[in-house]
Amino acid sequence: MLILGIIIIIVSLYLLYLKYRVVFTGEKCKGKIIGIVDQNAGYTVGGVFVKKHAYIIKIKNKKYYTAHGCILLSLGKRKIGKEIFVFKNEKYGKEVFKCFDFRIEIVTFLTFLSGVFLIYESLQ
Asked: Which of 21, 23, 36, 50 has a beta carbon 3.0–4.6 Å from 41's, enabling a disulfide?
């Protein structure tokens, strides 16, 4: 249980690293949402790849994809044509992070707490 807790904490910190390497070293840009595309989310459930609905952002005639998808496709389609602020860094590819989206932090916090709980339970 102790080793599993340590692994879970490391994974949660890695999730934060993936976002903040772009946020801290990237450039804050204003982009326009021009569409939604289905992409692989990077993990599988029951052997099936999970899809996400990522926004296509246009910044200075270049297309980028948001790192997080929209939760509900019907609500995401309402945002097409609106401008948003994103962080981008060319050396990390075509993914951008929305400035005011805290979903990764929430998932990381919950994962971190579960790791701490496992470590606490294994030490008792």
From this structure: 50
